[in-house]
């Protein structure tokens, strides 16, 4: 009799575990990000000025402990929080592979210089 009760209890526990696992997967599919990932939420471009485009993007990140939202290879990414505290923006590798990164003089952002000389400037908010 006790063996039967133990079997029923283990079965019930296994069913509860499977239901929790399915519920967790459903919640992740419906809007939660996996830890350490980011997604672009909004992207606005303003080309009203000649030879200049102002782009503003908002990203949503689910960073792990010790990380914060940043930019890696021109995409939103979770980066080490010390990069933001010290304002050493180029340490997070924000530019593409063929671009050079330079800090702005006041350390409020960085520039990515392409081989052809085109410069993209990014400032933190």
TrEMBL record:
Residues 1-29 form the signal peptide. It holds the Pfam family TAFA. InterPro entries: Chemokine-like_TAFA, TAFA-5. Belongs to the TAFA family. GO terms for molecular function: G protein-coupled receptor binding; receptor ligand activity. GO terms for cellular component: extracellular space. Keywords: Signal. The keyword Signal applies. Coiled coil: none annotated. This is TAFA chemokine like family member 5b. One of its GO terms (biological process) is G protein-coupled receptor signaling pathway. The gene is TAFA5.
């Amino acid at each position: 009799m006790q063996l039967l009760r133990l079997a029923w209890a283990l079965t019930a526990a296994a069913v509860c575990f499977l239901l929790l696992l399915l519920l967790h997967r459903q919640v992740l599919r419906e809007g939660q990000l996996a830890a350490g990932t980011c997604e672009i939420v909004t992207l606005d471009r303003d080309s009203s000025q000649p030879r200049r485009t102002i782009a503003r993007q908002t990203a949503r990140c689910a960073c792990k402990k010790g990380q914060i939202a940043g930019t890696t290879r021109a995409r939103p990414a979770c980066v080490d929080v010390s990069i933001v505290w010290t304002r050493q923006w180029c340490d997070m590798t924000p530019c593409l592979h063929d671009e050079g990164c330079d800090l702005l003089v006041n350390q409020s952002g960085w520039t990515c210089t392409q081989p052809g000389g085109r410069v993209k400037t990014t400032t933190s908010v």
